[in-house]
Amino acid sequence: MTAELARECARYAAMGWMRGTSGNLSVVLQRDPLRLAVTVSGVDKGEITENDSVVIDENGEAVGSDKAPSAEAGLHARIARVAGACAVVHVHALAPVVAAEHWPDGVVLKDLEMLKGFGRHDHEEVVVPVVRNSQDMVELGDAFEKGFDPRTPALLVARHGVYVWGDDLIQARHRLECLEWLLRFKVETRDIFTGRHA
Ligand SMILES: [Zn+2]
């Protein structure tokens, strides 16, 4: 499982979505009590190894290790708990942050084939929720839970990044790749839809 975390990190790093030492991934190891393996903090995600993960509890605290989990581990655990996700991916891709800047009350997506890859129907109106950034994971978690829609497996954190989740790391990656495309499309076509180029 931890080898899978390292492999996925390397992919995201190669896409430029985990710049510096940013971003983190987690997988649920067991449900009761909740335990997740999450990537450690402060490590270049392009060079992460299978030893660079730590087990956390439902509050994001390390269990049985003196390695430091990511500061954002608490939100991973909250998403796993509330959404029932088995894998959570957090990256600092640019398009989600730009989209959150334009639509701070939520990004509306509709009539786009790629919505299928995000786990929704292409004709549905999908609102990707946006929350304000905070260093307090409880505050972020509360904001996430308030706007949580079980049909939408993603959360945008303004001026920060994006969280996407799924039944496993592969499903979460496919959803993230499609969502990143959708948000890039939304940002790049915004002038058309506001009528300025009509
Ligand atoms: Zn982050």
UniProtKB/TrEMBL annotation:
Q: Which UniProt keywords apply?
A: Amino-acid biosynthesis, Lyase, Metal-binding, Methionine biosynthesis, Zinc
Named in its record, the pathway it takes part in is: Amino-acid biosynthesis; L-methionine biosynthesis via salvage pathway; L-methionine from S-methyl-5-thio-alpha-D-ribose 1-phosphate: step 2/6
Q: What class of enzyme is it?
A: lyase
Q: Which SUPFAM superfamilies does the UniProt entry name for this protein?
A: AraD/HMP-PK domain-like
What the entry lists under InterPro entries is as follows: Aldolase_II/adducin_N (IPR001303), Aldolase_II/adducin_N_sf (IPR036409), MethylthioRu-1-P_deHdtase_MtnB (IPR017714)
Q: Which residues bind Zn(2+)?
A: 90, 92
Q: Where is the signal peptide?
A: none
Q: Which cofactor does it need?
A: Zn(2+)
User: What is this enzyme's catalytic activity, as reactions?
Assistant: 5-(methylsulfanyl)-D-ribulose 1-phosphate = 5-methylsulfanyl-2,3-dioxopentyl phosphate + H2O
Q: Name one Pfam family in it.
A: Aldolase_II
What does the entry comment about cofactor binding?
A: Binds 1 zinc ion per subunit.
Instruction: Give the E.C. number(s).
Output: 4.2.1.109
**Described function:** Catalyzes the dehydration of methylthioribulose-1-phosphate (MTRu-1-P) into 2,3-diketo-5-methylthiopentyl-1-phosphate (DK-MTP-1-P).
**What does the sequence similarity comment in the record state about its family?**
Belongs to the aldolase class II family. MtnB subfamily.
Q: What is this protein called?
A: Methylthioribulose-1-phosphate dehydratase
Q: What is the species of this protein?
A: Lentzea atacamensis
What lineage is on file? Bacteria, Bacillati, Actinomycetota, Actinomycetes, Pseudonocardiales
